[in-house]
Amino acid sequence: MFLGLFSSKRRNLFVRGLHFGKKFTTPTAEDIVFKAVCVNIRQKKWNFLDQLSSSLTNPLISRVFREFRSSPQLILEFYRRIGGRVAVLQSLECCSTLIHVMVHRKNYEDALDLLKELMISKGHSPLEVLDALITTSEVCLQSSSNVFDSLVRACTQIGATEDAYKVIKKLKTDNQRVSIHAWNNFLNNLLKVGDVGRFWMVYREMISDEYYENVNTFNLLIYALCRECRLSEAFSMFYRMLKSGILPNVVAFNMLIDGACRADDLDLALKLMKRIETMSSGYAYPNEVTYNCIINGYCKKGKPEIAEEILDKMIEMNLTPNVRTYATVVDGYSRNGFLEEAFRLCNKMVEKGFVPNSAVYNSLVHCLYMEGDISGATLLLSDMMENFINPDRITHSIIAKGLCGNGRIDEAVKHHKWIVEKNLFGDAFSHNILISYLCRSENIRGAEQLICSMFVRGLIPDVVTYGTVIDGYCKASKVESAVRIYTDMIKIDKNPNLVVFNSILDGFCKEEFIDSSIYLVNEMKKLNMYDAVTFNTVLNWYCCSGKIEEGFDLFTSMREVGLANKVTYNIMINLFCKFGLFEHAKELLGVMLTRGLTPDAVTYTTLVTNLSKKSNSEEVVKLHDYLVIQGVIPDNQTYEAVVRPAIREISPKF
To answer: How far apart, in whole angstroms, are the C-alpha atoms of residue 570 and residue 600?
Structure first.
């Protein structure tokens, strides 16, 4: 009996042992390799992992990536360390799994790098990458649409704008969606590449797909409207954002302020800056960019003293101006001839611990050259070098223009040779400045020699280079030489631009090459390359050569298509005055004003001079007063020679 009990217990234990043994399974080869890989990754034994490379498969690698999803940097290091030596790690499926892990852990920059690597280095198309991401999303835990947003962003960053759009459309076809962030990124890219028309088309498509704008979307819309100079519509969009319950950030305010400054409405910009805190319910405050926009606006308007007051206010608000802020105001003073104020502010800037950059030096040097102070400009350039501020392309162009403008072309040529010998700028830009001044001084042969030296040094002249020499020859009445340069330009596959065509046309008209002029105008029409300058050149030629009927027909056509500008009306007013039809000239002046064109000094001189020949002093003064009221700035020489004597005749006290 005892033996029976014992046997029964052993049998039960044995049976229980059999049941318990079912919990243990013999590990597969993949399990063993998986554990070995994981252990060696934790210990960063990369060389040992090389020995396992032949056992690594896509499913195994995916398991490894999921295992270490909480340690993305560790698996990224694993990928980078042995990826180049293990073929399976280079597969699209493997990389897609890793991208999912990176996005899940919000390592977006690493995910973007991997996506760009797939498309650039490994040659996969964005749609191929998308298919792989969709496939691997089924096995990746906690996968999200953020990975598709990242693909759209990667496409825009590498300049594949159309591919980014294809990704969005493909997802829509597959009943999947990117987020509003991906749409914003794509819209922003369209603005960066200057495709504003498509921007609005894509925006409307986005809304039709039942997406709702967020603060970044509204910022893009406001920016686009400001860029198109549609300031009132930009403000309407801003108020629409407020009505939607979205609080604007400082970026939105800054874009509106910049738009107001560009529209020359600085009062509006200031009012808006003062109301930022109130309008955003305390969510946004003016920052350095806000103040820089307004400072730049006042400097462009020729009021650097107000810009400096705003700069001081900026400092009072505990905002730190940067070198660019000071450079803007220094340039504002310099451009308006306040050289002492510019130097004072520059010294103030240095006292506050800022080191003037090349922009500051360029503004001051330019102003000194404009005042004819060549020695002062030279000293300042020496100071620039002593402070280890390297002159840039703009610096050298200022030096070349400054020396040429002060009649020191030989020194400019010497400076140019030094630039070329030092190989500072290997393009046509620095040559074009000197070539332009040589042509203006009628030293066209010297300009051609400079072009030849460019070829010797392996530099290819650009369209500006050829256009400058062509214009120089045309102005010197050497049209045949201009045509020869034009032919040389075509031989090296440089397509002429509108400026070149207009220069040659002007040369043809001045030399009365009638057939050639007509042929060139017809060719320009075929190429759709013409503007008001083109037809003004022909109109002036008609009027000067006595082809009055042709001139009137062309003038009428120009008005109908909207090409008639201030120069056009000046040509016709001069024609009427030439034939003694002064009343007709005055009528045309009235038409000019009704079309929103303000007469200039040429209009003033033409009318006043011709009226003085046939009318009394009172009529001359009356016309002068009328033109001034219309916003004309009188030509000083005409005023002194004609108007002032007329005023003295009427009122001897003056």
So the answer is: 9
Q: Residue 256: CB partners within 8 Å, gap ≥ 6?
A: 222, 226, 231, 234, 235, 238, 272
Distance CA 182, CA 142 (A): 19
Interacting residues of 622 by C-beta distance below 8 A, sequence separation 6+: none
- 426 or 391: which carries more pLDDT confidence? 391
Rg (CA), the chain: 37
Continuous segment of H or E residues that includes residue 556 = helix 548-561
What 3-state DSSP class applies to 314?
helix
Residue 629 CA: distances (Å) to CA of 566, 609, 623: 18, 18, 10
pTM > 0.85: no
Name the maximum alpha-carbon separation found in the chain: 155
Structure tokens of 580?
Answer: 């003694």
- pLDDT digits over 337-348, tens only? 899 999 999 999
Q: Tell me the mean pLDDT in the region 26-41.
A: 80
Q: CA-to-CA distance for 295 and 331, rounded, in angstroms?
A: 11
DSSP 25: -
Residue 621 and residue 650 in contact, taking contact as beta carbons nearer than 8 Å: yes
Q: Which of 271, 213, 223, 277 is nearest to 245 (CA)?
A: 213
Residue 447 identity: A
State which H helix or E strand residue 239 sits in: helix 231-243
What residues contact residue 487 under an 8 Å CB cut-off, 6+ apart? none
Within 426-547, residue ranges assigned H as helices are: 429-440, 444-456, 463-475, 479-491, 498-510, 514-526, 532-544
pLDDT at site 246: 94
One-letter amino acid for residue 543 of the chain: C
End-to-end CA distance of the chain: 150
Give residue for tokens 């000293």. Answer: 379
Question: Positive or negative CA dihedral for 378, 381, 382, 383?
Answer: positive
Tokens of 33: 């390799």
140: which 2 tokens?
Answer: 């990746």
Decide if 456 contacts 417 (C-beta within 8 A). Answer: no
Sequence-distant (6+) residues with CB within 8 A of 509 are 517, 537, 538, 540, 541
List alpha helices for 68-179, DSSP H. Answer: 72-82, 92-104, 108-116, 126-137, 146-157, 161-173
Give 344's contacts (C-beta < 8 A, 6+ positions apart). Answer: none
* Residue 309 backbone dihedrals phi, psi, to 5 degrees: -60, -40
CA atoms within 13 A on the CB side of 329: 29
Please report which residue ranges of 321-392 form alpha helices under DSSP H: 323-335, 339-351, 358-370, 374-386
CA pair distance 633, 520, nearest whole angstrom: 36
C-alpha closest to that of 186 among 171, 175, 202 = 202
CA distance 19 to 227: 77
Retrieve residue 434's tokens.
């000197």
**SS3 at position 5:** helix
**Which residue's entry shows tokens 């039960």?**
12
| Identity of the amino acid at 42 | R
Nearest to 310 by CA among 341, 249, 269, 281: 269
Q: Which of 357, 342, 353 is nearest to 315 (CA)?
A: 353
Torsion of CA 240, 242, 247, 251, to 10 degrees: 50
CB contact set of 188 (below 8 Å; sequence gap of 6+):
156, 220
Exposed/middle/buried for residue 414 (C-beta within 10 Å: 0-12, 13-18, 19+): exposed
Least confident of 72-81, 123-132, 158-167: 72-81
